[in-house]
Amino acid sequence: MVLKFILLILIGFTSIIFAQTKQDDGISEKAKKLLSKMTLEEKVGQMTQVTLQVVSKSKSWPDGSKHSLDPEKLNEAIKKYHVGSILNVWDLALDLDEWHNVITTIQDVATKQTRMGIPILYGIDAIHGANYTQGATLFPQSYGIAATWNTEHAKVEGEITALEVRASGIPWNFNPVLGLGRNPAWPRFWETFGEDPYAASAFGRAYIKGLEGDDNDISKEDRVASCMKHYIGYSVPLSGKDRTPAMIPEQMLRDVLLPPFEEAVKAGSHTIMINSGDVNGIPVHSSEFLLTKILREELGFTGMIVTDWEDIIRLYDRDRVADSPKEAVRMAVNAGIDMSMVPYNYSFAEHLVDLVNEGAVSMERIDEATGRILTLKEKLGLFENAYPNKKLRKRFASKESLEAAARAARESITLLKNDNNILPLSKSAKVLVTGPTANMLSPLNGGWTLTWQGDQEAAYPEEKHTVYEAISEKLGGNVEFSSGSDFESAKDIDDAVKKAASADAIVLCLGEQAYCETPGNINDLTLPVPQLELAEALVATGKPVVLVLVQGRPRVISRIADSIDGIIMAYLPGMEGGPAIADVIFGDHNPGGKLPFTYPRYTNDLTTYDHKYLEIQGGNSFNPQWEFGHGLSYTTFEYSDLKLNQSKMVGGGSIQATVTVKNTGERPGIENVLLFVSDLVRSITPPVKQLKRFASVSLDAGMSKEITFTLNSEDLSFIGRENKRIIEAGDFKVRVSDQEADFSLVIPEQASTIKATP
């Protein structure tokens, strides 16, 4: 029995090794033929990526400025430096016609006016829809999608994004973000699928399959290449500020942060973008251990590796691990980088040519990198047709797509508090809508919306509704508005209080203005004081207050949370977010969202749900404002009869957990069922619990449903003391809501600790 189990594991490893050998280096025969004809300069050019600004004459901007390409600069980039990839906008989203003109002009030069005729690979950050194409369908940002606990939303978002990005003439999307939102101060928190590695893996896989298709055939007219990012450790900086150092033990890196990327590799993602920061003092762009040993050799990734913005030169001018820009290029390319997002000049190409001629970088490494880039272009179908498919315009921002985004927004919204059943509000009530996020579209969308920061309110479409406009449409004229305060300063608090006197209820919309990356850094996780003062002034009126939080991270509101009866977390719900919020407030949609992260009560108490036992002993406690997985409904759900099909799982086998969920209330609702497993004793201190399965269930009033989850040995594995994935015999507890059940994992006596099946 022992021998049989170990042999099964060895067979698993052998098949993976064989697959990697058979698939060689991931470079196609067509790419190899092209490589045999290319000069060094042409190869290095393919590895070079510049931003659109480099080949442009003028930029787009909300003041009416229009983008235009510069023919001379474009010729220099493609004919002289043989640039292989272009990205981005400058600075405002283009409409479909503008994109078609840009892509067509670029590809005309690349495919018709160069010796090799190799098409340009255009890339874009389409983070919550085709957000750099005007009029596109925009979904909630990723952590809102995760709050639905329904991976179908992620897949549908991926499908619609792929279609609308391809309709723009672009075949490559820099998404999904697979870092974990475990430091709520981090300004890219909202780009993640939350704090849990299993949830991020599941949503990431679904989104990738949406972008690339179940078969990963990215040559199809409505598919694009995905780009998992930012590998690895970017999302957990010690300071909470963007692009600052992370200190991550290898055990934690492998056990917590690596699984979403491992799952994305298995899902077939074609490209990967690298962490801009450093891990344990080593910039990731220079780490052969992370880029080659783990990513290539261990995970078996054969796709293309691209840097983030300017990150090779930063090895020299910021990180100071290279003594010259040229040395920075050598370090990064030899570590495993295939393409450099330079993005403003051609220094990378010039330095790399010199390095190869000097023997500091091998031609083999150049051929490997260039071969992967050419193979990607082939898989995307660019050699057959590099031009925009204008027929896709008919499917762009369709009614069905907009409804999918609206449905995701509605199902993401999380009811955090509903004391005295203040919600839903009556549609006959006279309502005051106030607060800095109440009458703007930009806070509903966040960064990566029309512009990088997403904060140019003038750029947003007039036909979309803010929260105030959506409530006004629902209630007619029975609504008043007051700004109340700005995001960071007191403004019209007195006006809001005055108008509250004649209102039956107050909808108070607080949160954050749109931001992205480093400009979103903060020094205090607490919601700005002027907003808290506005809330306190309105509570003091004695009128019922419903707080709507429109924010990219969980800002601390403990100062006001206890005094407000109704609190809604709206996340960044996207362009359809205003009506979605109004639907929840007035009961046209029963909220079912649940937090995909732990909402902190204090700025210095940032403990995740999967904390260790030491963190809740000896005077320590786990005391968040709201726990991971928290979310209320306008109906009630009851759990019962959690049963396991066996009391023991044999290593390599599986066990089934079945639980019954009943809607015991008076209206239909969505219940998101989360299953946690606790490893009671193991050789590495175990978390109190870990999420292992989830399901989203719709139940009519009085209806019940039996849900079955299957757990296997891999679900019980962890990274051990030798930094390898293992399983250990022992006792485990399954938890679903208030239900618990116990089982034991049994492993052959002669091998108390063995490697889990890969």
Description:
By secondary structure, this protein is an alpha/beta fold. It has three domains: 2-395, Glycoside hydrolase, family 3, N-terminal domain (TIM Barrel); 413-604, Glycoside hydrolase family 3 C-terminal domain (Rossmann fold, 3-Layer(aba) Sandwich), CATH 3.40.50.1700; 637-755, Immunoglobulins (Immunoglobulin-like). 30% of the residues lie in helices and 19% in strands. The protein has 22 helices and 29 strands. The strands form eight sheets. The chain has a six-stranded mixed β-sheet with strand order 13-18-17-16-14-15, sandwiched between helices. A five-stranded parallel β-sheet has the order 6-5-4-1-12. The chain has a five-stranded mixed β-sheet with strand order 20-28-27-22-23, with no helix packed on it. Strand 17 (545-550), helix 21 (558-561) and strand 18 form a beta-alpha-beta unit. Helix 3 (40-46) crosses helix 15 (363-379) and helix 16 crosses helix 22. Mean pLDDT is 94; it is low at 1-23 and 750-758.
Give the arrangement of secondary structure elements.
Elements: H1 2-22, H2 29-35, H3 40-46, E1 48-51, E2 56-58, E3 68-69, H4 71-80, E4 85-87, H5 96-112, E5 121-124, H6 142-147, H7 151-167, E6 172-173, H8 197-212, E7 227-231, H9 250-257, H10 259-266, E8 271-274, E9 278-279, E10 282-283, H11 288-298, E11 304-306, H12 314-317, H13 325-335, E12 340-341, H14 347-358, H15 363-379, H16 399-412, E13 414-418, E14 431-434, H17 442-445, H18 467-475, E15 479-482, H19 493-500, E16 505-511, H20 529-539, E17 545-550, H21 558-561, E18 566-571, H22 577-585, E19 637-644, E20 648-650, E21 654-663, E22 669-679, E23 690-699, E24 704-712, E25 718-719, E26 725-728, E27 730-736, E28 739-746, E29 753-755
Parallel strand pairs: 1-4, 1-12, 4-5, 5-6, 7-8, 8-11, 14-15, 14-16, 16-17, 17-18, 20-28
Antiparallel strand pairs: 2-3, 9-10, 13-18, 19-21, 21-24, 22-23, 22-27, 25-26, 26-29, 27-28
